[in-house]
Write a structure and sequence with these properties.
Number of strands: 7
Oligomer: single chain
Order of helices and strands: EHEHEHEHEHEHHHE
CATH superfamily: NAD(P)-binding Rossmann-like Domain
CATH class: Alpha Beta
Shape: globular
Strand order of the largest sheet: 3-2-1-4-5-6-7
Largest sheet: 7 strands, parallel
Low-confidence stretches: none
Helix content: 40-55%
Radius of gyration: 17 Å
Number of domains: 1
Length: about 260
C-alpha cells in the first residue's frame, strides 16, 4: 500500500494548457509521481520552456500543438501521444479562456468563443482519449471547473456557464464510462495566482484585497497547490471516486466572508 497508491510510473498523461498556471502545476505533480507528460497547448515556445522544467525533474516529456475547440486537432494530439508513448492513461482537460464583461455587454462571438474552448474542448478531448482508455482497461480524466461552478460572478457570465457545464459533463462521462474503469472527476480552483488572474486584478478594482480577506487560508492559491489533487485523481488512490467536484480554494467557496 502506502506510496505505491500514488505511483504513476509508466503512465502517460496529456495535459491541455499544460505549459503554465494550474496546468503546469498539475503536470509537475504528475511528473514527480513518475508519469510521462504530453504538454498540449497553443504557444509552442511556452510549451518548450515548460517541458524543460519537467525534464529537470527526470520526466519523459513531449509537446504537442493543439487547438482544443477543433476536433481534428484534438484527435491529432491523441495520435501524437500514441506515436511517442504508445498509450494514454490520464487526461487533464485544463485549457480554458475567460472574457470578463457584464452579461449585457457580451457579444454572440465572445459568448461562443468561451463555450468553444471551455466546454467543447474538454468534451472533444475526453471523446478522443476514450477508445484508448477503454482498450487499455481503464483511465483517469480530470476536468477543470471553477468556484464559478458553484456560485455566480457578475463579470464572467460565459465563463460561469461553461464551468457549471463542465461539472455536469464530468458527471455524465463518469456515469457513462464507469463500466470501462474510467474515473472522471472535476477540480474546482478558487482564486489562484496565474497570468489569467493577474489580468483580472488589473480589471477588477479591489479584487486582490477582497480575495485575501474572504479566503480562510488567508492567501491566493498557487499552481503548485494543484500537484497533489492531480496525483490523487490520476492514481489508484482514487479508483472508487468518480463524478466528484473537488474545490481547491483555501476554503473560499465555503466562507461567509
Amino acid at each position: 500500500m502506502g506510496s505505491s497508491l500514488f505511483d504513476l510510473t509508466g503512465r502517460v498523461a496529456i495535459v491541455t494548457g499544460g505549459n503554465g498556471g494550474i496546468g503546469l502545476g498539475m503536470a509537475t505533480g504528475l511528473a514527480e509521481a513518475g508519469a510521462a507528460i504530453v504538454i498540449a497547448a497553443r504557444d509552442q515556445k511556452k510549451s518548450a520552456e515548460a517541458a524543460e522544467k519537467l525534464q529537470k525533474l527526470g520526466a519523459r516529456v513531449a509537446t504537442v500543438e493543439v487547438d482544443v475547440k477543433d476536433q481534428n486537432s484534438v484527435k491529432r494530439m491523441v495520435q501524437a501521444t500514441f506515436d511517442r508513448f504508445q498509450r494514454v492513461d490520464i487526461l487533464v482537460a485544463n485549457a480554458g479562456i475567460n472574457i470578463r464583461k457584464p452579461p449585457q455587454d457580451v457579444s454572440a462571438e465572445e459568448w461562443q468563443a468561451v463555450l468553444d474552448v471551455n466546454l467543447n474542448g474538454p468534451f472533444f478531448c475526453a471523446q478522443a482519449v476514450y477508445p484508448a482508455m477503454k482498450a487499455q482497461g481503464g483511465g483517469k480524466i480530470i476536468t477543470i471547473g471553477s468556484m464559478t461552478s458553484i456560485f455566480g460572478v457578475p463579470f464572467a457570465p460565459a465563463y460561469s456557464a461553461t464551468k457549471g457545464g463542465v461539472v455536469q459533463l464530468t458527471r455524465s462521462l463518469a456515469t457513462a464510462w464507469a463500466k470501462d474503469n474510467i474515473q472522471v472527476n472535476c477540480v474546482l480552483p478558487g482564486w489562484i495566482d496565474t497570468d489569467l488572474t493577474r489580468q483580472a486584478r488589473k480589471q477588477v478594482q479591489g479584487l486582490h484585497e477582497r480575495v485575501e480577506a474572504r479566503t480562510p487560508a488567508g492567501r491566493w492559491g498557487e499552481p503548485k497547490d494543484f500537484a497533489g489533487v492531480a496525483v490523487f485523481l490520476a492514481s489508484h488512490a482514487s479508483d472508487f471516486i468518480t463524478g466528484a467536484a473537488i474545490p481547491v480554494d483555501g476554503g473560499y467557496s465555503v466562507s461567509g466572508g
